[in-house]
């Protein structure tokens, strides 16, 4: 397994992996599969460019992109010490093999190496117990829960908010 930063050349594989994650675990994400599918290849490549606002890491096994994690540093000066973690996913066939933990630990190491960064933040839906346990194994801790955070398909979901201090 290799965890590395994705580049614009990875856009086709990124599209496949992200779309599969949104289709497999729709309750874990705010974006829907049709919303993502509507994005152009150029827009996805721009998202992976070296000058993009975020950094997307990928877990690659035998040449196949099987896991994703995106880091976004806050841009407002009073919040620039914070990095948000988004879009974490591991393909179902690769779960239980340490890819998720490798991605999260690599993301933490990278973000905490950035000058001035003191903490990482993420939210996880109340239905995603395995993801929450993964984040907690990697050092994140729940600091609060937002009730009535998301309404989808007639269900009301809470979000657990987690933090890791560098």
TrEMBL record:
CDD domains, sorted: NAT_SF
InterPro entries: Acyl_CoA_acyltransferase (IPR016181), Bact_Acetyltransf (IPR050832), GNAT_dom (IPR000182)
Listed Pfam families: Acetyltransf_1
Taxonomy, superkingdom: Bacteria
UniProt protein name: N-acetyltransferase
Organism of origin: Deinococcus sedimenti
Keywords from the named record: Acyltransferase, Transferase
Membrane-traversing stretches: none
Domain annotation N-acetyltransferase: ranges: 1-166
